Amino acid sequence: MTDIVQHLTQDHQHIDKILTALEKQVDIIEKDDKPDVDLMIEIMDYIRNYVIIFHHPTEDLVFILMLAHDDSARPLVEELFHEHEEEQKRSAALAQVIDKAF
Q1: Which entry of 9, 28, 42, 79 is 20 to 30 Å from 58 by CA?
Q2: Could you give the CA distance from residue 38 to residue 3 in angstroms, rounded to a whole number?
Q3: Residue 12 three-state SS
Q4: Cα(22)–Cα(16) distance, integer angstroms
């Protein structure tokens, strides 16, 4: 189970970097400048095809299994779940700005 938790944690770090890159492009849009549309498309594709389809369902299953087998894992699960929620909020906010711009 430790390997999968490490993988999920690394995913969160990677997703954070990707969302930061997308936020920079949104800042460019909000300044009425021209963003890197190709980069934005690649990021949204990654979010839709990896984060939403694979990462989040895997994470949800891992959380359930961890808590079912070891209640002492609750603090770690809560931390990962919090990161999960924050990623979703950031993604949703960015998607709204992008939808309005295009």
Answers
A1: 42
A2: 33
A3: helix
A4: 10
What is the distance between the alpha carbons of residues 62 and 11, in angstroms, rounded to a whole number? Answer: 14
Place of tokens 């979703």: 88
Q: Which helix (H) or strand (E) holds 80?
A: helix 74-101
Q: Which two tokens stand for residue 88?
A: 């979703």
Residues 14-49: tens digit of each pLDDT: 999 999 999 999 999 989 899 999 999 999 899 989
The number of C-alpha atoms within 13 Å of 58 and in the hemisphere containing its C-beta is 15
Q: Name the 3-class secondary structure at 41.
A: helix
The two structure tokens encoding residue 91 = 């993604």
Q: Is 32 left (phi over 0), alpha (psi -120 to 50) or beta?
A: left
Q: How far is CA 100 from CA 16, 20, 25, 39, 93, in A?
A: 23, 19, 14, 18, 11
d(CA 45, CA 39): 10
